[in-house]
């Protein structure tokens, strides 16, 4: 073997492996904040009621009504929180550590505690993506579009819309009064019709998984839905099964959020579902963002 | 310097081993990814197999008969680097697809492969020209 080829092979292989390790670390580990700390929404709780049973809970105040129900469908436990808001701006989003950035994560319950959330679910995990609109609480954080990405837009007047990032810019959405834009998908139900096929999946998986979805009823009420999965007790849902279930409870528009080990619902500081990544242990995965209803 | 039988056989075996390792790696990775798979991960093994192991197996056979065949080992080293880069890029892209994430660093692999292939071609051409000149001078 010539001296050059020996040196080249060794040096190049070391360089290639080093770069690949760095690329993996950059994707999953190395964190970087993109902006200064986001001002977290904070309000003091006025409710003096004791914590109600997890399986069924209803509470009302002048502005917010929350009811919690558990279903058992497709060998899976599904948790549904139906929320009626007098003002859609009570639906808020929070970032892990109050910071918009890459690989900055925290458990849903921790983020929820930090913002005194009454009810919270995991969001769209914007932090693992380098593109895709990020508009939260009426603030534009990222305007770089992702090809073919379908988003859910929740406007400050309470209306909702599914858009493609190919067709409209983030700035245009801001002008139209976008309050929250979620960039994961796909849309599960659109105007009462299931909009996913039985073969459709996120990331080419056909298996059932824990799921998180956000939906809207005919009367404009919001539903947060989280299903268990990957365990002996709960198999999990396919996207189509989630859409079918949501249709059965009257949801007319629904959008899929980050699922799998990220799927988490927290109510009054308590974990409602059984979050798991491997199926072997029940524990929350750290995520980059949540959707919540403030206390 | 040019290849000999022993060297081509060693390279063929090394890249066969790499291909087998990648088959195993992809299979195990898919087992733990809850049914999510990526073609980039699953078929990464085809790159070292089709573009190095098989050609070198062929070269090994040719060298048994044509002992005077002169091929640039330097060009071969650069060519193999290109295939290794494509393989690592395929694995990295597979990881990104499985996790549903993105990273612009994938561009580095995409750019490096054709550059290395071009470099290997130029080195091979230069070596062949030098060899021809040496033959003419003799």
Description:
The complex is a heterodimer of chains A (295) and B (138). Helix content of chain A is 17%, strand content 35%. With 295 residues, chain A is α+β, with helices and mostly antiparallel strands. In chain A, a hairpin with a 2-residue loop joins β19 and β20. Chain A is globular, with a radius of gyration of 20 Å. Helices cover 80% and strands 0% of the residues of chain B. Chain B is built from five helices and no strands. Chain B is elongated. The mean pLDDT of chain B is 88. The A-B interface holds A 1-2, 4-5, 8-9, 12-13, 16-17, 19-20, 22-24, 26-28, 128-131, 146, 202-207, 209, 230, 260, 278 and B 1, 7, 32, 34-38, 73-74, 76-78, 80-81, 84-85, 88, 91-92, 95-106, 108.
Q: Number of DSSP helices of chain A?
A: 4
Unreliable stretches of chain B (pLDDT < 50, length at least 5) are none
Radius of gyration of chain A: 20 Å
Rg of chain B, Cα atoms, Å: 18 Å
User: In total, how many beta strands of chain B?
Assistant: 0
DSSP strand (E) fraction of chain B? under 5%
Average pLDDT of chain B works out at 88
What is the string of SSEs of chain A from the N terminus onward?
A: HEEEEEEEHEEEEEHEEEEEHEEEEE
User: Count of DSSP E strands of chain A?
Assistant: 22
N- to C-terminal distance of chain B: 18 Å
